[in-house]
């Protein structure tokens, strides 16, 4: 696509593929994916059906603020004595209750991670070293053939000093801020940056 085509996205058909989106939107999606990985990969690995997995979940739910509410929201109506027995591993819950405990644990963990975005910022900043960003160009099959660019390829840049603002913008759902952050980030591509204003996918190494 010509330079004019990047400024007026869709002028030559690129918008006919819904997967071709602004880099700011793709950055927001990539951050959400990173946050989800942080929730799941940093969580309890043992299954709730094991004694260790059950006890770990119950300790989390009984020592973190919001735990009792998470259990109630998941449908747990057990007595305090039963909850203590589950926490000590002295009694196993019925399968339906074990599933509800698992749901309560993951819901509370997700809430706590989302409420503390500083951990994700630190993870992405890596002490100033930043995090790699893999940029996949738009699908040009839908673009008018005479306006296609044959030299578009997957590019990689090292994202530094953008993550605090990017995470805040993602958490706030601020698409305009994410778009501005993306334009700043791709300046590293020099004169070719405009070709990656819109992308098909962004992956971040976190």
Explain what the structure shows:
It is a single chain. It is built from 9 helices and 4 strands, in the order H-E-H-H-H-H-H-H-E-E-H-H-E. By secondary structure, it is of the alpha+beta class. It has 2 domains: 3-37 and 120-204, no CATH class; 42-116. The chain starts with a helix and ends with a strand.
Question: What layout of secondary structure does this protein have?
Answer:
Layout: H1 3-7, E1 21-22, H2 23-41, H3 51-63, H4 67-73, H5 80-88, H6 95-115, H7 118-125, E2 131-137, E3 155-159, H8 163-172, H9 175-185, E4 198-204
Antiparallel strand pairs: 1-4, 2-3, 2-4
Report a brief summary of the structure.
The chain has 9 helices and 4 strands. It is of the alpha+beta class and 206 residues long.
For the CA atoms, what is the radius of gyration? 23 Å
Order the strands across the largest sheet as they lie in space: 1-4-2-3
Q: Uncertain regions: pLDDT < 50 for 5+ in a row?
A: 1-5
Oligomer: single chain
Overall SS class? alpha+beta
Biggest β-sheet strands, sense, barrel: 4 strands, antiparallel
Shape: elongated
First-last Cα distance? 31 Å
What fraction strand? 5-15%
Question: What is the N-to-C order of secondary-structure elements (H for helix, E for strand)?
Answer: HEHHHHHHEEHHE
* Helix share bin: 40-55%
* Tally of contiguous helical segments: 9
pLDDT average, as an integer? 88
When the domains are counted, the total is 2
Instruction: Count all strands and give the number.
Output: 4
